Amino acid sequence: MIGFDLTEEQQRMKEMAHEFAEKEMRAVAPEYDEKEEFPWPVMKKAFDVGLLTYALPEEYGGAGVMSHVTDCLVQEELFWGCAGIATSMGGIMLGALPVLLAGNDAQKKKYLTSLTEPKKDGMPKLGAFCLTEPDAGSDAAAIKTSAKKVDGGYILNGTKHFITNGGIADVYTVFATHDPSQGVDGIDGFIVEGGYKGVIPGKKEKKMGIRASHTAQVHFEDCFVPDENRLGGEGDGFGIVMQTLDHSRPIVASGAVGVARAAFEFALAYSQERKQFGRPISKQQAIQFMLADMATEIDAARLLCWRAAWLLDQEEGNTVQSSMAKVFGGDIAMKVATDALQIVGGMGYMRDYPMEKFMRDAKIMQIYEGTAQIQRIVIARFMIGFG
After folding, report:
1. What sign has the CA pseudo-torsion 157, 162, 163, 166?
2. CB neighbourhood size of 71 (10 A)
3. Is 369 annotated as catalytic?
4. Per the residue annotation, which of 76, 77, 297, 369 is the catalytic one?
5. pLDDT at residue number 386
6. Distance CA 268, CA 369 (A)
7. Domain 8-115: what homologous superfamily?
């Protein structure tokens, strides 16, 4: 039996996230976007109400909201509020995911618990997921960051690129190779503390969109990581990465739905107020068809997210379904933002209105967490038996 009724917990989480997005994020989103500053005050408020670590188990200090469908509901609302701030928030759980999925009991107790505890100044601790490199984006297996085995641990050397919360995180999950000749079988995962010697913040990027998020390089220069901080067995790193992305892509896709919904709602309201030829432009069939398509596409994208997340909740494989959700959600975010701006017209192109921000934010949804083209490759390979 298929049903779409939300549980009481899901409805409560959705409403809490929406209220936070409306009251705490939307009011300050233009300022943080314009200044390209990290939203520390908003992050603290989110931490205080539990929106940063709600998906972590209660035994580690989280809220124990382990339903992936619930996660989709929450992230749609937060990205509806501001994609940049929501990306900063989501970077914490993305960094924690490899530990949650592949960490041993001691690693989970130490590092997941750490993320649920505030710093001395009350600010939240940040996590970050370090995979992408200057020469290894879509081809994650081509990473060059090295992990040299030494007595008691590993020495990491290399540079990670486009890292959310990079250079300001307290806990990093880092993927490096102990033997490039082994390809994916030579990749290991590590938990690296931000305070370790040899963890060096790099260039902060100036971005088209999601400007409230901190995206930067992270350099590892002779950084010693103890044996007990390796995730899984030697050579397990690439599998951990793939498992992490299967979990994260429905969430990112839900964020894309949130951005699309924000753009659609603004255009819908504008079309009912803006008058041309003696009546609201929403009375024009050309505009009506655009609005109808947008509403339909948003709903379809949302349902793909829910299906991919539901499969995770059933502990079933979802690689193809998560890629479908990601590629469709990202494409629809961009399409809806473009069409919504067209409806708003010249005013939408002006920075006094939020439409141009929605459009700038939407574009990243087709790029990060695996480009739209990579998602299509994943889907096609499973279809023709190369998975």
Report:
1. positive
2. 26
3. yes
4. 369
5. 67
6. 30
7. Acyl-CoA dehydrogenase/oxidase, N-terminal domain (1.10.540.10)
Burial class (CB in 10 A: 0-12, 13-18, 19+), 233: exposed
- CATH of segment(s) 127-237: 2.40.110.10
Q: Which parts of the chain register pLDDT below 50?
A: 1
Q: Which of 215, 177, 216, 222 is nearest to 199 (CA)?
A: 222
Domain ranges of the chain: 8-115, 127-237, 246-383
Q: Give pLDDT, residue 346.
A: 95
Residue 291 pairs in a beta bridge with none
* Residue whose token pair is 């100044």: 121
pLDDT of residue 41: 98
Residue 66: per-residue pLDDT: 83
User: Is 68 buried (19+), middle (13-18) or exposed (0-12) by CB count in 10 A?
Assistant: buried
DSSP secondary structure code for residue 18 in this structure = H
- Give CATH for domain 246-383: 1.20.140.10
φ, ψ (nearest 5 deg) of residue 84: -70, -50
Length of the chain as a residue count = 387
Whether 160 and 205 have beta carbons less than 8 Å apart is answered as no
Residue whose tokens read 């997941």: 112
pLDDT at site 385:
83
The alpha carbons of the chain give a radius of gyration, in whole angstroms, of 21
